[in-house]
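Subject: Zn(2)-C6 fungal-type domain-containing protein structure
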Amino acid sequence: MSQSRAIACLRCRARKVKCVPNVPRCRRCIELGVEECVYVQRKKRAVRDLLRIGEACLPCRKRKKKCNAERPCSGCVDAHKPEECVYDRPRKFHPQPRRILPATTNSLPLVYRSGSGSFQVDSSASLPESLFTTKEGLMGLTGNQPSTSFAPAGPAGSASSGFDPSPLSFEEPVLAIAPYFGDALPSGVLPVVNCSDLVLWQGQPSYEDQCALSVVSSALFPRIPPAPHVPLSFLGEPNIQISHTTPELEMTFRLAGLVRMRRMGTYLSPRKQEALLNGDMSGVILHPYFLHKVITFGMHHSSIVKESSPPMVLLHARYIQSFWEKLADISQGNDCDLKVQALLFLVAGCLFVRQSRVGALYLWKACGVVNAGEMRFVPRYGHPPPYSDEVHERSTVLSQLIWMENYLFLACDGARPKLTKRIEEEFRNELPGIYSVLFQVCPLTMRTQGILLVRDVVLFLEELQNPEAMPGDWKQSCDLLASSLDDYSDMLMIRLGECENVGDKEGASIIRSSCISCLAHLAVLYHSIGEMQPRARTTVDGLCDAVLDNLGNLSQGMELEDVTVFDLVLKVSWEKALKIYDSRLNELSVEEGSELWRWRCVVAEAYADMERRLPKREPPILTSLALLEDGRSEGSRYPNLMNPANRKDYGM
């Protein structure tokens, strides 16, 4: 049997050959006729009490020498400098994956079990109490002690007064970020986490920290794509420069596994973190790639976060809230760049929590801060904006569109009637001002998003109450929107002609589909206006006929490869409108040949035409963000339009 060199004879070891032991000589020595066959057993290395480099004394660390646990250590004694043997204070704790993931109750030092009665706040935390909560508020999370509730002032009033969701219960311990839910969450069921270790990291993250966060990312977000390259077309110029960043944004990207900060711009040093928390926003730069990740992070997680993962929903929602609180303290309505970043961060947060009822409740409270005092950015009733920064205007309108859509989502998700009434009032008050700005400063993507949102709003209000009882201000809003849509469709037709003249087939295909989508939603809106205002039905009928004629002209001669995602969205729009007409006919028992029946036939014909022209594919989820967000959900086969490979299948 072959032996290792450690127990081979000296001759075999020197010649580096196999040594087959035999008594008294090995087999190879017998073959060679060697009389002496000497075995020498190697000695094992002495075990020394050495420390890791992070725990060594400062002189040994500087000299890169080994250091033991003695005081003075052996390295300093050998160097004849025992008086210089000084140990640094322990390094700040960096959370490991097992300390972040709430998978089990036995391996979570930071996240206490749900049955624990109390906890202590780290006194050395560099994060101020106002950014998250007070000690009294944190203590209110445990037991039956009273907890403070956040009720931002604004036109919507207190969110907690109109919403009382059903009690929530989580089988596994979760991260209790703040007690701002008030009475919405049962007391004594949510554990507490020391947020200071999760928010601020001191210095550049080490390689071990990056590996740890990569494990966290793969466990929490297994389906997030590595780095989708999506241009920020709705912000105009892709190289927009924003001059501020926040610890909340830093934490957001660490949770997403984006820890290689060299690719994203300047990393926040401890000095800059301290200056940032003290209100000094100078010297902190946000790279465009960093800004790009803010948007894509929220988009990709909008369909991943479910009720089954409340820890991450609460965590991200809490950062949205804390960011707005800090923003209200730092900015007094003068810092435009900071407002733009805040709005973009709110957009990402809205996308993140939109599919969670708990997150929607928290977002409702966060939106109250948006509309409180100096934080109101969108002018009411079409007044000219008090700012000249076009990027700021675009970001403002985008954030308000998503803010209002979350109102709609929250109302349709089982909210109480009082809250629904408040949402209805907010729609009436805000829509005229929003859409007067929307069609002036926003690019094509945002306008299409606004069209889809209006369709949902109209259908929501139709189901909410009798359309004939709509007040005059809502009619004014619909008329303003219809006029803007007409102008928008005319502009698209002009651009379509320009693309066809220069031979740009790809651009013409996209614009043609945009025209079809715009005109189709305009027809649906005209239907709704006719339902709301019976006296205007004659005018509405004529407008609808013109719209349907344009739809027919645009649809003629369209090749299959010209079909884009707009057509798929349009198909679902007609299908939804057809179902609404069928339900209305059944409720009212309308006879065939009536006006309502005629419009039902028009919609059915348009839907049948779309079915004939479109390929047999599953369309993306139809929301106001169907063109932007990831439409995937658990168990579905909806395409991810953020992936360029999937866009080719839809002609984009």
